[in-house]
Amino acid sequence: MADRNNMNNTVKGHVLSASPLTDHDIYLFREGSHHRLYEKLGSHLMTVDRVQGVHFAVWAPNAKEVSVVGDFNNWDRKSHPLMVRWDGSGIWEGFVPGLGNGTVYKYYVVSHNLGYAAEKGDPFAFSWEAPPRTASVVMDLHYVWNDAEWMKNRHKANSLDSPMSIYEVHLGSWRRVPEEGDRPLTYREMARYLTAYVNESGFTHVEFMPVMEHPFYGSWGYQTTGYFAPTSRYGSPQDFMYLIDHLHQNRIGIILDWVPSHFPDDEHGLVYYDGTHLYSHSDPKQGFHPEWNSYIFNYGRHEVRNFLTSSALFWLDKYHADGIRVDAVASMLYLDYARSNGEWIPNEYGGRENIEAVNFLRKLNEAIYENYPDVQSIAEESTAWPMVSRPSYLGGLGFGMKWNMGWMHDTLKYFSNDPVFRKYHHEQLTFSIWYAFCENFVLSLSHDEVVYGKGSLINKMPGDEWQKRANLRQLFGYMFAHPGKKLMFMGGEFGQWKEWYHEESLGWHALELPEHSALRLWVGDLNHFYRQEPALFELDFSSEGFEWVDVSDWEQSIVSFLRKGRQHDSMILAVCNLTPVPRYNYRVGVPEAGFWKEALNSDAVEYGGSGHGNTGGVNSTPVPCHGRYNSISITLPPLGIVFFKYIRGGK
Length: 651
Fold this sequence. Notes:
By secondary structure, the protein is an alpha+beta fold. Among the domains are: about 10-135, Immunoglobulin-like, CATH 2.60.40; about 545-645, Immunoglobulin-like, CATH 2.60.40.1180. About 25% of the residues lie in helices and about 25% in strands. Strands 12-15-18-21-22-23-24-25 form an 8-stranded parallel beta barrel, surrounded by 5 helices. A hairpin with a 2-residue loop joins strand 3 and strand 4. Helix 6 packs parallel to helix 8 (about 355-370) and helix 12 packs parallel to helix 13 (about 515-530). It is elongated.
């Protein structure tokens, strides 16, 4: 047992009891409410009795021995043992003098369980060696931020009534350097190129697929081992901070994908950490994920909830993230997820709901919004679980927003139909409005839709090449007109033909062709128009912000609807012609008499269209239509969407 009062107690030059952990820390840790564990566990530079070194602390309650090994002691497992705390917390700790920033290390853990022993990475490490090496690295996270203006005002950019158009990025394949072995860009190189591209394209936020350290590159980051460390593949923690800082200075928000649903079976990671299922359930019917061959966190364990909540807050704290997108929430909510009968254990009431996971998610979101009320927590949840994006005090899960997977599936399925047959599938396009306001939805066209043989977005569209591009322009226009925030995966904005592949750069050569640069121009103009028009974002999550004009013209595959802002005259009329037949003198009822300016037209020549349009706009006439006293007679372009803006008092 370590002597708490003797700061100079040493074994082989190893100070045993220079601990930053207080009794209060241990109380919160054991209670499950310590949300800043990254300040206490892991490796931390400190000075004891004017001697500089590193304090190590790791949770391993079923260990018989724990020692620190690394280059500094030639990986000698006996050289620097840690001591278990006296308080029953299961935390092993110790101070090693003489070590500094950049020290490479692991914990050698010997278990009470059947002689299990392994060299383990540090669950709380701030940095890891670049894969395929697997050791942890002592890292000082000091960085001088220059984003104070953004941080002060970011509540305006992240609020539910603000425009949010998200560009989803996989860091390793957005752009590569073919002259240097096709290597990915570094974090600092990304800062320059990505910031300029996103600003030019008009997106408000960037969402990074998981940057947390992961051993298998092909997992895209979704098999996480380093829950407190950005991957070293592209640079240091400070380099990643620089990337975020640079984006913030250019008024671009950052959302980070985060994976609390499962973890991989790599021996240096969390699995069997102290020779037992420390972080997961021991019964594979609860603790093993059959679809992903990974392990499921034990959300009923206080220390595990501490670990995960601390990880989420860490990225908001140390890296100034503006939100987290929580991956695979459905797999957390249901005990029978991806399981057949007899392969899962019901909850205490006999149901399939994972009550411990539900409680964890509610507490997680409470902690996020209590500490960072100006960020967003976003759920990737693919079922009809109710009130995902409603506060926990109302019985919800407490997320700020939820991906709208139903809209994505129905819309892509509709657009994949030959226009000749679309009239028979009209409800696939219109059904989403029936549930559009039951959650705070993000309309997502994500990476999952352009991999594993699903084809790129443009290749999902029917017809010849011109028609494919026209359909894609209309899909994007319909998404920006539809209630909900927006998300688009990289490459879709310029119509990349190939499926996304994580080992290759995007097909930037396509932008050398005028038809692809025209598509990107359309997306950019959509983004800029969207950000300028409150009618398209202020009431995204309220039925007051949407009104059908005509939902029933299935015979011609035409829909028309209004988006409305808080001001009475803040109105945008969107009309979609989902066939390749132009419609002339098509009459649409409007709620106000006056001039309706043609603000955007996907068929404009500069976007690669045929040029059918309305010469800048039309004046209404007192001809009743669609239950309204006034109407406009317009030209609808083939496979096109037209946005009209109401102008009070005329042109």
